[in-house]
Fold each of these.
Amino acid sequence: MKDKTFLMIPGPTPVPESVMLETARHPIGHRSSEFSAILKEVYENLKYVFQTKNDVFVFTASGTGAMCAALENLVNPGDKVLCLSMGNFGERWAKIAESRGAVIEKIKVDAGQVIDAQVLQEKLAQFNPKIVTLTHSETSTGAANDVKTLCSIIRKHGCLSVVDGVTSVCAMPCKPDDWDIDVLISGSQKGFMAPPGLAFLTANERAWKVYEQCEHPSFYFDWAAHKKAVADDTTPFTPAVNLIAGLNVALKMIKDEGIDNMNARHKKHAMALRAAIRALGLQLLVKDDSNASCAITSIVPPEGISVPDIRKTLKNDYDIVVANGQGQLQDKIFRMGTLGFVCDRDLIGAVGALEASLQKLGHRFETGAGVQALLKGLQ
Amino acid sequence: MKDKTFLMIPGPTPVPESVMLETARHPIGHRSSEFSAILKEVYENLKYVFQTKNDVFVFTASGTGAMCAALENLVNPGDKVLCLSMGNFGERWAKIAESRGAVIEKIKVDAGQVIDAQVLQEKLAQFNPKIVTLTHSETSTGAANDVKTLCSIIRKHGCLSVVDGVTSVCAMPCKPDDWDIDVLISGSQKGFMAPPGLAFLTANERAWKVYEQCEHPSFYFDWAAHKKAVADDTTPFTPAVNLIAGLNVALKMIKDEGIDNMNARHKKHAMALRAAIRALGLQLLVKDDSNASCAITSIVPPEGISVPDIRKTLKNDYDIVVANGQGQLQDKIFRMGTLGFVCDRDLIGAVGALEASLQKLGHRFETGAGVQALLKGLQ
């Protein structure tokens, strides 16, 4: 049905009407007092959402832009960077570090697995890196690291931790100031309930000391230029003013809900969905609930039913878009996002539609088993 | 009056309602066939607007992002870069080149002046740079270089020309394939009649040869990743899908008008405005029409009347936003943009409002002289 699509991919995610309408207002001058007033609220509310006393920078860019904004302001050629990789987005950190001439090593785990603290400790002792990159919620698998524990180990070793919070911020507790996270990045089209095109970064004093040693910091993503801009309620360059105006509305909604409540909502949804998937007799890529992202759930299709068929049925018959696996996981899993502007009713509809789709495709189970398990989880 | 603002700053510029409404539609997945269909049209129509047979890349970024996308894929530390500077945006090229460790020299002219071909020839012989950066239409002054002549000289010398077409593309003839321009960049919030947040770059085969020698090309702005993406009707990273959907509508409007007609409209508007300003007894920063940008006109206020007062009166009484000067030109000039989605009626209203504002502030001239000169120019 036209205009009925429910985006369950891990970004772009559903966006409230009030946010979309705000983005549709005619652009205003980015050096005007009206726009400064918007930015002032945005910068303040981003600190609330990121749960940090430090500035949060806003870049007109994809989330990958914020990843570059992290490493391109920290890495000199020859620097040692350890990349903790659970999948595609962990690999992306490594590629960016390499693009700046870093000497990299990786701890790489199988799809669906998370980084082991003991392995990290041993690797740190052996490799002695300057920077460690990690992913909080790995969008390609739905696995989530215990960032608090890992970053505390990284801190004890004297290294800098650089964390991809693209799908975790808003969806899962993520507390840079309390958890020894030195640099944290995210993007607007994820838990923030806004359209894609804006990316965020916050860095602490330890990170700034490393920035000061960076020989060729990025010009477009330069931290010093952005810090000065935040202090002046402005941006260094012409930003996507419409997207920022929309983000302002979305951030107020997040503040109204409360970040802890928002985290709890995501956890409830993800765990209830996992229970439903199990009740349907399907396998989860991430076996253990405690290692599961609250933003995205990776599901292995039943024997004999293909991922493209499941995606096609969900889309054509129920206007639900779920994601395929990426890279080597393509056609091996499908991924259901429960990220951002998602309510219980959305999820009930989605699980019911998944049940019906699987039955159409020949998978057998007791009708209603998924919805029943979901409803219990939502209680 | 609320919602009546006419943006005459050099960006963001007025945006058609149809474009804004398109950006307000719910985001769709960036890997969907629906979005690929949009991108396919966008990539095709950008080649038409840029008047090139080469690919035009789309970055989710400010115009400055596209400037970085140019030099960060070409410059190695120690490379010699000659920066032709008519003002703020000419200086920006130099800063970006320096941020990559280039050895730079400049040809710098006073505000309102343009680069002299003879001076360029001598400098090329003396400095022998690898790359020459130049600005087509200098947004901070309203001066416009003869890019065709300058780039032909640069080509003859065997250097690579990198051109800022941020306010010139759409507003003035700019033909990279015919004019020996090796790299050309622009931004969505200028002549393209779209909101800010997208930036564009096209590069020819000569530029690609230099790219191949770049030791640490940008990851986010990497040309090879974008070239592959264009071939596949996609983008390397999650783009600002809403802005791209809006751009698609705007590009179709440009194609319907015809790029030559659009250039001619801008020329007519700029020249008629210049005639009106002269008729009001005001000085133009760029004296000679043949050196004037067709996107932006810099005006020196009458003796005894301040730029802030003119801007305030235009804004408060007539809902027109004009720009102040930048840097050393602050409060010395005001700048009126005639860029993008601007019709004759807009300009007639603006010149009439400027007349009335100047009279309120004490400047004396024959009432109607400006509008009269404008109307003659618009014939």
Amino acid sequence: MPRLAYLGPEGTFTEEALRLLDPAAERLPCANVSAALNAARTGDADGAVVPLENSIEGAITTTLDEFAWGEPLLITAELLLPVQFSLLARPDTEIAHVKRVYTHPAAITQCRAFISRELPDAVVVAAPSTAAAAQEVSLPGSPYDAAIAARIAGEHYGLVELASDIGDRSDTVTRFVRVGRPQPLPAPTGSDRTTLVVFLADDHPGALLEMLTEFSVRGVNLTRIESRPTGDGIGRYFFHFDFEGHIADARVGEAIAGLHRVCGEVRFLGSYPRADGVTTQIRRGTSDDAFGEAAEWLARVRAGQV
Amino acid sequence: MPRLAYLGPEGTFTEEALRLLDPAAERLPCANVSAALNAARTGDADGAVVPLENSIEGAITTTLDEFAWGEPLLITAELLLPVQFSLLARPDTEIAHVKRVYTHPAAITQCRAFISRELPDAVVVAAPSTAAAAQEVSLPGSPYDAAIAARIAGEHYGLVELASDIGDRSDTVTRFVRVGRPQPLPAPTGSDRTTLVVFLADDHPGALLEMLTEFSVRGVNLTRIESRPTGDGIGRYFFHFDFEGHIADARVGEAIAGLHRVCGEVRFLGSYPRADGVTTQIRRGTSDDAFGEAAEWLARVRAGQV
Amino acid sequence: MPRLAYLGPEGTFTEEALRLLDPAAERLPCANVSAALNAARTGDADGAVVPLENSIEGAITTTLDEFAWGEPLLITAELLLPVQFSLLARPDTEIAHVKRVYTHPAAITQCRAFISRELPDAVVVAAPSTAAAAQEVSLPGSPYDAAIAARIAGEHYGLVELASDIGDRSDTVTRFVRVGRPQPLPAPTGSDRTTLVVFLADDHPGALLEMLTEFSVRGVNLTRIESRPTGDGIGRYFFHFDFEGHIADARVGEAIAGLHRVCGEVRFLGSYPRADGVTTQIRRGTSDDAFGEAAEWLARVRAGQV
Amino acid sequence: MPRLAYLGPEGTFTEEALRLLDPAAERLPCANVSAALNAARTGDADGAVVPLENSIEGAITTTLDEFAWGEPLLITAELLLPVQFSLLARPDTEIAHVKRVYTHPAAITQCRAFISRELPDAVVVAAPSTAAAAQEVSLPGSPYDAAIAARIAGEHYGLVELASDIGDRSDTVTRFVRVGRPQPLPAPTGSDRTTLVVFLADDHPGALLEMLTEFSVRGVNLTRIESRPTGDGIGRYFFHFDFEGHIADARVGEAIAGLHRVCGEVRFLGSYPRADGVTTQIRRGTSDDAFGEAAEWLARVRAGQV
């Protein structure tokens, strides 16, 4: 039974993601993303589950930077979790009496309309996580009347649900990934995603276009690009890429090797099944068969057998 | 005397940026970036100063999203501000007695080495801004012993500096921009930057490559790209671009018009002098003169005068 | 009634093309392509009809080089002429007695199978044109028994047709163009072609890719590219391009102006209706309306009206 | 001692090229390029020497088409031969008496200024080759007074040189290649050229741009591109490419394999030392070492060793 670290405390959306990714795993809550990843790195845990991006908030930059700069880890699975917020309070609280609300800033942003409409006079205070807010509210002497958090957090901390699905959009999704220490990769499935970090050797005009061309010329479709500062001053960035396919695919391997040749440093973060199950469309001439046939042809031609 | 809104309270790095951008301006502190921008939009202020990105933390996503989704504003100036953190406390506090520190999470990240080395046993608590942390520490009954903030915040709230320049890197820089309601643009200087937001008409493989080609074919160099979620689900993004040159430049105007034609929506955020004063290098055949000469030639040729 | 020069003598395929392009024109046969074009340049004729390329033989390099180096001319029309060869002889000649055949080398190439099969023992001699061959054969004392030429040449010179449509392929086509001195261009029809000559400013790796990108980024499709030597040594070339659309089209104008800016010299050879009548497919965002709307938007944005 | 076929008769520029390429070879003159190549194909000769392009006239299309459509041959060497024309006549002929000149049409083009200036009243008649013209003029009863041909032809046929180096340009060069049946390739030298023929799988807008990108993304520089008709109608072409490097080079092999995958058919025509001895400049990240290192890295990463 693997032991997986996650962004705690119990009741976070990340815990929910972990339960869905591996129901049988032992769960090790950690104070923040870095701590969860470090638990996986040191062996305190067999792996970790962390959020990577949210369909409203965007990238979780702590996760991106940990993946880029920390000891190497490999992504082995991803999960898309619809994020539904509930207004949670101690039993017997009435919504009319909620004057002080505690929650994570991302939840404040995503529940703005509900707060304006239903809690126009309430003070809303920022908490380090939605589950921490629920935990705080569950304490008898808490100065807060309610928390905005996942329903699971309410169940965990003995709170009741005053209102459910209170986000401005009902289709908010967070993407979580499971990571582990370097290990054999999940086998290709035909519906895979690969994640990379790329540092430029020298930052020159057109460098990004060159990187994208390494993908496009081999029929590899990008699904996400993020730039992050290298720390060496404004205007210096490195890049996170997600794209379709598995590094075991010939076209993907050649594209990544191409980036490795022309860029400063490429860090491979994993190839793993897509959570949405979408099958990779393979452009003419870029299948493994096409690569294999071309390699045989090239060998013959190099031997002068034209 | 213009009145400029900014991310307050008094003593923030943003206030320092505002003072440098416009020493004579009246200053209107606001609770957060959105409030400062709204003050500019509604006319409560004549403009606003907000942070756009930091050389360690990356983009300030609130600013990016406000620029993309809120009522249009125009960037009219930028400033690069070295960010130096100080450890600030009430008079008579000794560093050996600092057990509880209050500051913004970004400062925690950026001062990690100092904290580990000098304050190994201290509890560090997250504050909404560095200046708010200084303000809180200045209160007689504060539960916190020290704040990490800008020196200016210490001066403002009557704190003393226990240690200065405590960031892990001494070259951390934040980029601030001054914005205002739609207005005539600053004149081109030969050392300008332009900022855009681009939404894709339809998200297809190669869309990003196409956008970059609109720039590169006309010799326009990108200096920053950020992707942000559209809110329509994981995998749907829009883009922020900074690039060299002024929209009044022929090559820049043609590139932006090209994006406007082939993308779903382009929002122009401004052309303004670069804070670093770097002169734009103009590739052969892309100067205003070259465009003007080509337009005259085209007119003659279209009239059959070959 | 215009007077048009052409590659003579009477009976050439070019004469046939001229008759189809302008049945009412007065016809001025010339000894070669250069002479025909010079007649148009000097005013001896109002224009000229010359072959540009053949679906088997490829480009007529004399025509290409005259267009590139000679006094400027404008193409105003094109014609695709199926080329059918006949075996022509003086009356009373039997095919079994044909021992010496006279024709243009291109016709030898294109009738190779017929000659091997039907005239295995004949000597085939090269003539300057197919019509000249027919003319020669028509002379009473000619050393040749038959000519391979257009049927029209046989009619003209009083020859009989021993065999018709004797080409290896029945779908051979030659493309002819009508040219004149610089003049107002034919109006756009929605099914137009444009022809250019481009000389490189400096020959560097990627120069051709850059030229093609000027077309592709604006949705202009190439239909023909030819390289020709500049005369400055092996490895130095200039280029002939045909592409879809009319220089009056906004996307075409911008692409040509772009080439003019970044290349050494661009010579415009004309925009004219396509002989095949194929309507130009216009990619999203590249119609004249899209360009007009983008120009208006750009003007507003440059005025700060965002 | 190898036996090499060439475009005869004795005294052609091709014979001169052959002597320079392989002084010891037995020489087999042939009536035309096709016959010379066929002699190599059938084994009548061990190889052939044929012209490929001329710095004034451009491509020798017969050679290009034979390479593309005929039984496969491999280019094993190239030679650049300065082409100098002489006016040759039977002994005792004076230039003032030259009224009828016989030569190849290419020579007429290239000696136009000399002919206008020195032989304004002469009739110039087209011959199948310059050497054939010299041979004809050497016959006692020849109707021609002089030939324009290589000096070597004059020596061979007993003619005297009335004028030498009479071309309009003194730097005209013809590129010859030596070909043979399929065989082991010449070893890479660091100054190599590779020649290919590429047929498109389906002719779509952007197909040429895609082909060029296969080269450029791997740092392979084109030195020549020629389009030739496929014979399937106007607007359908295939392409000849020359580019820097040897198919044994990793970057060249990968580029050619890429073309093989995405195009209809690629015919490899050979990798051989450049006649001009120019060393191939290798762009960062495209050396064999860079490819080898990237392949090792990829293998490790695919095994999960990040």
